[in-house]
Amino acid sequence: MPGMTTIQDRVQPALPADREVRFGDLRTLHASDAEAVYELALAELPTDAPPALRGLQVLARTLSLLMRESFVIGSAANQHFASTPQRHGLLALDDGADDVAFLRSLYSGGSDRADHKMQSQKRSEAYTSFFLDEHAWDANVRSTRLLRVDHQDTKAVVNGSPAYHFGSLLDSAREVVRCPTAVYEGLRTDGDLKGGLAFCGKASRRWTNVGHEPPPSNFVFMVFASSDGCVFDWDWVPECKENPGRPRNAAERFPHGEVKAPVCGELLLGNVRGLSPAPFKPEHAWYSTKGDCVFWYLSDHPAYADRYDDYLTAFFDAETGANLETRCVGFKLKSVSRLIKTIREWSMPGSGEGIKVLFDPVKPQITLSYLMRAWQAAALPQSQDLFPAMILMRKLGDEGVRAIQHAQPIALPAEMQAAEAFST
């Protein structure tokens, strides 16, 4: 097995310093040192290997699978990709025709590959294993999910969102889904996002509004995708100190735990790359259908995300670190369709009632409350977030429905009368 130091030294010149690795980088390495490509695929990299190196290895291993099982060219999100005929293993072809020509040449026995017996005898052990042998990591390659960004979210991310958000999508999001440190399934307890995936990992860079800088310590980068493979959100989040490479409070956020089977993704960005983001629009909200959430930013200062509850995630100024003394610069309102449905069911017709989010950037707190005259007329407590309110409505049952409809006061269940149950 090739040595780690030797492989890293030989591969290093092919690793870009200002973006994620692409298949074109593997082509460049192959042109200068084809044997390094084969040895990289076979190498056992340590878990703390640089993200770019691990990403290039994923591409090399995917190439090996395609050469052994044949490949087809597909297209999605305005971009070509290669996979096996069974859609096992995926390679985003960012350079289009050049990438396709290289694949066909290598597969057919072009400038490098030859299957004649006399020539095969001259080939190295790494070459033979790359093109002929099955490997334990084939299962990981076959598990690759095709990911993309929905048209609606593409339009939103270039129409006034912070510039760093756009840069993070093109670079960090693709890098992390390709070689995550952990993957979680179940972004919501019901609905379409019940089968959604959260990819967690270390990114090579943190993007700002004017470029990039080294990644922050004690943080991981997360990418969220719907069950049909549409990426709708990506953020830095605080890292769990006891379990590095995982987000803080992972058990609370993802009750089902980590996905046990190997899962990775290949993010197609043909419908995003090349677009020019519009200037930042403060206090401009946009809705993601795929994520069933609303994003809102007061400031475009680089931020990290911290989960508040099942309905709210707050964005905090990244310069001050992961603590509760930081300045809040925006938020994400989740499960919006459920919130709207609840309001329609419980509010008085024609009242114009809805949901109000109170935002205070100085005191990092977001308060989500009902705007319901019927609720207030019934003398029901006002909760500081929607979840306790929904629990209360469930406990009140049919009597609560009648009270809301007719604005009649009702008695609360005994277990709900404790003052500490709600903040009023």
Q: What would a concise description of this structure say?
A:
This protein is an alpha+beta fold and 424 residues long. It has helices spanning 4-11, 23-42, 51-69, 97-108, 117-120, 125-132, 138-142, 151-157, 163-178, 250-253, 336-346, 373-377, 386-406; strands at residues 72-76, 79-83, 90-93, 145-147, 182-185, 197-201, 206-207, 212-213, 219-225, 231-238, 265-267, 286-288, 293-297, 303-307, 312-317, 328-334, 354-360, 365-371.
Tally of structural domains: 3
Number of helices: 13
Spatial sequence of strands, sheet with the most strands: 12-13-16-15-14
Number of separate strands: 18
β content, as a range?
A: 15-25%
Q: Can you offer a commentary on this structure?
A:
By secondary structure, the chain is α+β, with helices and mostly antiparallel strands. The chain has 3 domains: about 5-140, no CATH class; about 145-290, no CATH class; about 340-420, no CATH class. It is about 35% helix and about 20% strand. The chain is built from 13 helices and 18 strands. It has helices at about 5-10, 25-40, 50-70, 95-110, 115-120, 125-130, 140, 150-155, 165-180, 250-255, 335-345, 375, 385-405, and strands at about 70-75, 80-85, 90-95, 145, 180-185, 195-200, 205, 210-215, 220-225, 230-240, 265, 285-290, 295, 305, 310-315, 330-335, 355-360, 365-370. The strands form 6 sheets. A 5-stranded antiparallel β-sheet has the order 12-13-16-15-14, with helices on one face. A 4-stranded antiparallel β-sheet has the order 5-6-9-10, covered by helices on one side. A hairpin with a 4-residue loop joins strand 12 and strand 13 (about 295).
